[in-house]
Amino acid sequence: MKKTTTVTTNSPTTSKTKNKVGTALKPKVFTKRYVQIFSRHPSHNELRRKILSPVRTCMRFGSHTEKPDKYEVEINLASRIDNSANKLLMKRMFTKAGVKTAAWVDPSECTAASGKTVANEVAKLEFPIIAKHIFGSKNRGNTKIDTPEQLTAWLKGKTLTNYIFEKFHNFNREYRLHVTPEGYFYACRKMLKNETPDDKRWYRNDDNSIWVTEFTPIRDSKQLIIGESATDNPGFDRPVNWKEIAAECVKALNAVGLDFGACDVRVQASKDSKGKVRPTADFIIIEINSAPGLGTLGVIKYKEMIPKLRNYKLNKK
Ligand SMILES: Nc1ncnc2c1ncn2[C@@H]1O[C@H](COP(=O)(O)OP(=O)(O)O)[C@@H](O)[C@H]1O
Ligand SMILES: [Mg+2]
């Protein structure tokens, strides 16, 4: 049976409130119920009080908020948020689930008893490598290290359990795929801005990159984006093994136990150094984010996805 969508405030003061002439006011009645968005990212404000839901639903974007209210559907459990926010937990889960990711070193395994040292284990990855703070974001907390000498200098004075170390793959394409257990529902390519200086070209973030959507956006008469067409965006340069990449992103999502997330994927160029088209493209899942910032099209895509994901979760109960 369909549940009612009428809810009343449970504020004990509501029914006692009086208007100016002393008549008791009726309790405030909400006839609409919206998916509750738990997020501190301003771009997610566009999703607040926008998505109606017949069942109490909340959605966490990187938020640990445990609300006392009972939600029938919780999209991204609070207990799973750290599985992607903490790069150490995330990589451990990726490794356990066999997700295709860069080879890495967990410093906590480099104990006196094991006979392993971080310097030796990292050197086995082959340089360059990236040292990543486990709570870094937007590439803050990441350092590219090119030589053993640089590593020795970098290691001095660091609390190593705050970091992980990864092999650096110089693949020239990077994508972000937003996924649910049912597959990806939105994808962009991150492309370096031409003016980016050489020392900042090894990574992609909002400061040095632009976002190219998979399909060309549809715009209204004021040039505002109102949707996505079915026409490929030429700059997107979809990898030949796109399906395989998308499936690996879902695997990454399941590995960390989230309901939705945005995967950063670095992908080999479509042509080799001699200009020959490659039959496939090597790639690595760099990470999965539970609080991706959203542009106009991203918000549109999430508004379409959220009710579907809610229904998917309801059916799984
Ligand atoms: N192993 C790697 N090989 C190549 N590039 C990488 C690797 N790890 C990170 N990067 C680059 O650095 C960027 C930021 O790294 P990421 O792990 O996503 O950290 P953050 O949480 O700061 O976004 C990635 O988007 C990618 O461009
Ligand atoms: Mg990232």
Structure, described:
The structure is a single chain. The chain folds into three domains: 63 residues, no CATH class; 65 residues, 2-Layer Sandwich (Dna Ligase, domain 1); 146 residues, D-amino Acid Aminotransferase, Chain A, domain 1 (2-Layer Sandwich), CATH 3.30.470.20. It is of the alpha+beta class and 317 residues long. The chain is built from six helices and 16 strands. The strands form five sheets. A five-stranded antiparallel sheet has the order 12-11-10-15-16. It has a four-stranded antiparallel sheet with strand order 6-9-7-8. Strands 3-4-5 form a three-stranded parallel sheet, covered by helices on one side. Adenosine-5'-diphosphate binds next to β7, β8, β9, β15 and β16.
